[in-house]
């Protein structure tokens, strides 16, 4: 235990020497207000609003100096969207993942990748995944998952400011069509832009905007890489969070697609709430200071794995 605490102290001290670009409450709020706006109408795949969100993400990635992993930031695919029981299938929707990266500086470890991701889509006007009887009502998806997308953008900004410290390379992915069966992440692992064997960890953020008064932050899959449970527990406590860390219980978001390919994962969220998949999941209910706290936690974990020779390797879980 003393060794783990000393390691965390050294990591925190090390991070203190990084660039002073910070994750801010103001920027988190601005991202969420845009993503969960009435104009973007629930970010439904295949719509203009969804495409506008993609443009927003790409613009932010470019601003931070992130590079496209392929020729373009968009990894395009066609999505089979869910329909209500008894309704005819919809035509395949054109959508995409938004993918960017920063290369590590270690001549060997730069060929290993840490992925951090979040899905940017939501339910649009409702549909079969909605938890309400209200039809044709905007499902804003502020927590699910404007919150994760906002944190992705904020973490990307800070990692970019400290890219000289990277040993491993970091890939940033905003996934499309998660709400229709993890389609974006499934497309990525089926059509990987880097060899899957070189992906050492996938960190996923889905609903990170509603930190409760007990400061609970939940993690699934921490046992899929060496020392993950202890590390995430102790790091969270050092940042005044109360981590609920599961070794397995991988959960139901985009990291599952990677876990099924024998890739270590970490799924982070702040818990369920009554507004889940309902029109009431709005920006005014986001705990912005709490989301900043969670974002800092994820950033520090990510940078530990990306800036050190932390031993990585997949550990199967039930």
From TrEMBL:
InterPro entries: M28_fam, Peptidase_M28
Protein's UniProt name: M20/M25/M40 family metallo-hydrolase
Top-level taxon of the source organism: Bacteria
UniProt entry tagged with the keyword Transport: no
One Pfam family hit: Peptidase_M28
Keywords: Signal
Peptidase M28 domain location: 97-300
Signal peptide residues on this chain, from the entry's feature table: 1-19
